[in-house]
Design goal:
Layout: E1 6-9, H1 20-26, E2 32-34, H2 43-53, E3 58-63, H3 65-76, E4 81-87, H4 96-100, H5 103-110, H6 114-121, H7 132-147, H8 149-160, H9 166-171, E5 176-181, H10 189-198, E6 202-207, H11 214-217, H12 219-231
Helix pairs in contact: 1-12, 2-3, 5-6, 6-7
């Protein structure tokens, strides 16, 4: 198992509760922490602030917006990241159209209707169908209300301005887990296959019965995939596709 500390980066609107099952499962065996992605209105600023306080070298796991911040950390300090997990995220820049699509969400946040805004951004069909959907959505709303509208608006602005990370992933030379829920309607499986194909040492895991938040929807399966990633040797053979 990995000896370096593991740093989790949550998605937009989320805090450490997003990774509660993984923190509980992994903390007996290793140093694990959750770093906030609330410190700026640009992805570059958030990453820079985190690098000032993170350990010298660490394994890095980010979900959704947390994955985007993780890619920026990798771009800025590749020598400090020992391994990388990208979960339900997106390596592409926003298009002008997709950036504009956030504006109604920002307007809703400015009215203070955080629960409605959260459900506008993370629509129910982005999560897997079944009895856990309402429970997971309720937890997202609780996290969003704890962060408050000002932080979430800054996070949204950062997403709107984000860069393309394809070149960063092509240069990545550490063990990488690319993981997503099979029913993720926000960042679908095909996008993760695309990312995995860019990365020399990537392992793609698709979690059945999960959507955009497999860490909460299928925590045991997700944690098992993370354990496998943490067991990988740091010196790897380049993947050879059949």
């Amino acid at each position: 198992m990995s000896s370096e500390p593991v740093v989790f980066l949550p998605g937009m609107m989320c805090d450490a509760r997003l990774f509660a099952p993984q923190l509980t499962a992994l903390s007996p065996d290793m140093a694990v922490t959750v770093a906030p992605i609330t410190g700026g209105d640009r992805i570059e600023e958030i990453a820079s602030d985190l690098l000032d306080v993170l350990p010298r070298r660490f394994a890095l796991a980010g979900l959704s917006m947390g994955g985007i911040v993780a890619m920026e950390i990798l771009r800025r300090a590749p020598d400090r990241v020992t391994r990388l997990a990208l979960m339900d995220t997106n390596s592409l820049a926003e298009t002008p159209q997709s950036a504009t699509a956030y504006e109604p969400f920002i307007i809703k946040l400015k009215t203070g209707a955080i629960a409605e805004a959260a459900q506008m951004l993370l629509r129910s069909e982005y999560l897997a169908s079944g009895p856990r959907r309402a429970e997971v959505m309720a937890e997202v709303v609780r996290m969003a209300e704890a962060l408050g509208p000002e932080i979430i608006i800054r996070q949204t602005r950062a997403l709107q301005r984000r860069r393309d990370y394809q070149a960063v992933l092509r240069r990545c030379q550490v063990p990488v887990l690319v993981l997503c829920g099979a029913e993720d309607g926000l960042t679908p499986v095909k996008r993760h296959r695309f990312m995995a194909d860019l990365i020399p040492y990537a392992n793609l895991v698709v979690v059945e019965g999960a959507g955009h938040l497999p860490v909460l929807e299928q925590p045991d399966t997700t944690t098992a995939a993370l354990r496998g990633w943490l067991r990988q040797p740091l010196v790897l053979q380049r993947r050879v596709d059949a």
